[in-house]
Design a protein that fits this description.
- With 367 residues, the chain is an all-alpha fold.
- Helices cover 80% and strands 0% of the residues.
- It is built from 17 helices and no strands.
- The two termini are 35 Å apart.
Amino acid sequence: KDSKQLTVFFKGIAILLVILVHSHQKFDILPLFRAVPRFGQMGCQIFFVLSSFGLCHSFLKNQPNWLSHMKKRISKLLVGYWGAIIIYAIYHMLIAIVFEKDILSTINIPGVFINMLFLNGIIPIETINNNIVRGGWYVGTLVVLYAIFPILYNIYFADKNKIWRKYRMILFPLIILCITSTIVITMGLINPTFACKNNSFVYFSFINQLTPFSLGIVLFEFYNRKNVYKKTLLFSILSLVVSIILFYGNFKYSYVFCPTFVALSFVFLYKWFSNNQKIFNTINNSSNIIIRTILCFGKNSFSIYLTHSFIVFEFSQICLTLLRQVYRNDLLWYVVLLPIEYFLIYLVGSLYNKCISSIKIHHSKTN
């Protein structure tokens, strides 16, 4: 089966979740009403799985050398991410001028250059990792995972022995999880600064996100197996329940293991969707407005990811300041503004995507 449309669909789901987690942060609402939106941050794990899943398709057709592989991957991120860096720098500069602050310290020039070199995923400074571009941690981490991917791919598909071929879908992520979780937990024990807390540098790091990324390779084999696994939906639900318990329980090592269970849940869900012929055909045919909307978000997911914070933070703050003068009930305004924000986010994101595409097309023609 052609997985392209299904992948775009789940990219749409993932970006809708990411928007959701940021959508409530400017609103003064009770923790109970924040609970569901908060879990939306796990949309990034879906992106990690889909990234390595897509790379497997590319490597199956033609496995490039490491340099060609990285050049191709970074070129796909370069225009969009550099553009976002420039936009955020201009925005911070304007804010500094309006509020009469020091422009140079506001822009953080060293941080800008580190992000432009895609090194923010390996330099353990939180103000550089995720503040130059809101959500920039994902790009920095993804580039490191791209660099590691050829090694992971060759290890996974190495024709070692029958036992490895038979059980690698279980052994491969399990071994990676054991190694990475040991490293992350040990880092926190040695230096509490590097404890894996939610939204910390270590949580965002490629080490902590390596298992979800590796599960994309597992999904590639799982998806292409002809066997119909009747209990995939059950396993997806069970994995999701475990991830919810870890996330909301906020145990000491919750954020070491939660991303893996979210990714595992998604792997089973993707397989179940592909096995269910009726659902698969419905998505492939884009047969209703909800699916078409999700697909539109999925097609523009990267540009939406880079630009959505201007709407959910700046736009919502301006609206709230005005609306609170009429009636002070943030929950009401959250419900009213959320669909408006999604609409504006799509418009801005799709426009930015067109700008990115036009620059890429112009660059390819000149070369």
